[in-house]
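User: I've been trying to design a sequence by hand for this structure and keep getting stuck. Would you show me what you'd pick, starting by listing the structure so we're on the same page?

Assistant: Good idea, let's start from the same input. This is the structure you sent:
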């Protein structure tokens, strides 16, 4: 079954099911109103629709149950088809995501590396010693994140 035929059949089935459900709901509402009027005349019945004689729950109708089962099967088939179509794109998308995040981590690593270079004279005991250490640690973390993102992208 090609996609157009599947879509047409699914659309027709949904419209038919909607019409049937609407008709049954209208019948149910009319019968409930009729039962409510009868209840005023006969107070021995309580007000719940299940206890009113002759009124059935719409979900118990065999037509509705059959339509639900068919639509569930078609929906599962469509989900498998879409999943099979998108699987290669998810792999490529995952690789692309890792490469983009690796690139941005690399940019942050370069930013902090410039800061390390700027305050390199204070690496041991200068006035900006703490600033140098924080920038060096941040550079190391972002270099690690960048390299590991590209490494994971390559392994995929």
């Amino acid at each position: 079954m090609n996609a157009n035929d599947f879509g047409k059949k699914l659309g027709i089935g949904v419209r038919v099911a909607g019409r049937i459900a609407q008709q049954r709901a209208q019948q149910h509402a009319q019968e409930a109103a009729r039962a409510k009027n009868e209840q005023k005349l006969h107070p021995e019945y309580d007000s719940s629709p299940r206890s009113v004689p002759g009124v059935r729950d719409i979900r118990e109708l065999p037509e509705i149950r059959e339509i639900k089962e068919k639509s569930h099967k078609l929906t599962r088939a469509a989900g498998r088809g879409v999943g099979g179509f998108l699987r290669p794109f998810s792999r490529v998308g995952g690789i692309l995501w890792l490469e983009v995040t690796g690139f941005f981590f690399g940019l942050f690593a370069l930013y902090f590396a410039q800061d390390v270079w700027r305050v390199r004279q204070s690496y041991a005991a200068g006035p900006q010693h703490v600033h140098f250490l924080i920038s060096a640690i941040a550079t190391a973390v972002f270099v690690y994140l960048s390299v590991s993102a590209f490494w994971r992208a390559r392994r995929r």
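That's my pick for every position. To get oriented when you compare it with your attempt: Helices lie at 3-41, 62-118, 129-155. The radius of gyration is 34 Å.
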